[in-house]
UniProtKB/TrEMBL annotation:
Transmembrane annotation, as ranges: none
Coiled-coil segments on the chain, per record: none
Stretches assigned to the Serine dehydratase beta chain domain: 3-58, 74-111
GO BP, sorted A to Z: gluconeogenesis
InterPro entries in the record: ASB_dom_sf, Fe-S_L-Ser, Ser_deHydtase-like_asu, Ser_deHydtase_bsu
Cofactor list: [4Fe-4S] cluster
Pathway entry: Carbohydrate biosynthesis; gluconeogenesis
Catalytic activity: L-serine = pyruvate + NH4(+)
Domain Serine dehydratase-like alpha subunit: 151-396
Record EC number: 4.3.1.17
Keyword terms, alphabetized: 4Fe-4S, Gluconeogenesis, Iron, Iron-sulfur, Lyase, Metal-binding
MF (Gene Ontology): 4 iron, 4 sulfur cluster binding; L-serine ammonia-lyase activity; metal ion binding
Descriptive protein name: L-serine ammonia-lyase
Length: 401
């Protein structure tokens, strides 16, 4: 598996695959062809169908500036992944220098094909959760020690920066009011939810409102192009910060411990990324919100001081009960149903950790995390393309703009 640095990235919304990935692609092409006089980009599949709402053409044009760029939007997908594009590079005589086939494969990760293809750097020799749990059990180390063993002792500094970036996105989102950009004219509600939580007497309602307001704050920031952390993607970026911020503010967990919890959650996200997908265009929203819910459930289970088996149980529940979740953004914007799903996903993560804590000592879970990852991958394959970030089905079709 790759480093968790490739999973947790600080960037801007609204989409890791449609905004962050294309931005990285444009920067890489600029570095390789500084002599280019113009570009033409063929956006394919999901990048074409929801690119306008996700600001794909905008971010590419902004990154290539001042060199001019034109676009073609083609609904057919390229062979490797639904988020594909071909970048045509032209010289001063307007002759094509190169046609580059490249993919944005989720979480801001990119993959060039052909002679520009790069081999991902593998940091972890274990690729499944079963392998990881067996390794730490045999060595008698914690999951956090396992992360540091392969990431390096200074990795806690990176995680500290990631945690601060997550908290920044929560606090920034809680301050803002107004309308999120785009045709939906969606009102920001995180600040009002937070104030409502403060004025709610019933403790159970208050706690859940706090968590929801934190998730909404980040998801609204993401939808409006603000700074967030991919966890594992932009579209699901509110779930992990909501749980971590709740643990810090309401449960008074110190940041040094939250860094460890963040690493544990990241491991489960990494396993999904390695063995299935974290791209909504490839696997539906189960790959994004489902994975984020599993990560946050594992995080919360670690905070509850559960053993590794029960942490796995919590993560498995977090993913299992999001199976089949469709990616059908209305108008191509990462707003409806995406923002609400971040709030709902954070509450599901809390519930999964609580259930693992209560049920795990009564009976052994019969479904492993690796098994549910395999099921999620197969479910994603079976989903119609209309429900995989194309805005051709589901809510997007019902409320088409």
């Amino acid at each position: 598996m790759e480093s968790l640095r490739e999973l947790f990235k600080v960037g801007v919304g609204p989409s890791s695959s449609h905004t962050m990935g294309p931005q990285r692609i444009a920067k890489k092409v600029m570095e390789m062809y500084p002599e280019a006089h113009r570009f033409h980009v063929d956006l394919h599949g999901s990048l074409a169908l929801t690119g306008k709402g996700h600001l794909t053409d905008y971010i590419i044009e902004k990154t290539f500036a001042p060199i001019p760029v034109t676009f073609s939007f083609k609904s057919d997908a390229l062979p490797f992944h639904p988020n594909g594009m071909i970048v045509h590079v032209f010289d001063e005589l307007d002759q094509e220098i190169k046609a580059i086939e490249v993919y944005s494969i989720g979480g801001g990760s990119i993959l060039f094909k052909g002679d520009m293809e790069e081999t991902p750097v593998e940091v972890y020799p274990q690729n499944t959760m079963d392998e990881i749990l067996k390794y730490v059990d045999e060595k008698g180390i914690s999951l956090y020690d396992y992360v540091l063993e392969y990431e390096g002792e200074d990795f806690d500094h990176y995680l500290s920066d990631i945690l601060e970036a997550m908290f920044f996105s929560v606090e920034n989102g809680l301050k803002k009011e107004g309308i999120i950009h785009g045709k939906l004219k969606l009102k920001r509600v995180a600040k009002s939810m937070y104030q409502q939580a403060q004025n709610t007497r019933r403790e159970a309602d208050r706690e859940r409102l706090f968590i929801s307001s934190y998730a909404y704050a980040v998801a609204e920031e993401n939808a409006d192009g603000g700074q967030i952390v991919t966890a594992p993607t932009c579209g699901a970026s509110g779930i992990m910060p909501a749980i971590l911020y709740y643990c810090h503010k309401q449960l008074h967990i110190e940041k040094k411990d939250l860094i460890k919890a963040l690493a544990i959650g990241g491991l489960f996200g990494n396993v999904v990324k390695k063995n299935a997908t974290i791209s909504g265009a490839d696997g539906g929203c189960q790959a994004e919100v489902g994975t984020a819910c599993a990560m946050a459930a594992a995080t919360m289970a670690w905070i509850y001081e559960l053993n590794n088996s029960l942490i796995e149980y919590a993560a498995e529940m977090g993913l299992e009960h999001n199976l089949g979740l469709t990616c059908d953004p209305v108008g191509g914007y990462v707003q409806i149903p995406c923002i609400e799903r971040n709030g709902y996903g954070s509450l599901r993560a809390l519930d999964a950790a609580m259930l693992a804590k209560q049920l795990g000592y009564l009976r052994k879970n019969k479904v492993s995390f690796d098994a549910i990852v395999r099921v999620m991958k197969e479910t994603g394959k079976d989903l119609s393309s209309a429900y995989k970030e194309t805005s051709l089905g589901g809510l997007a079709k019902e409320f088409g703009l």
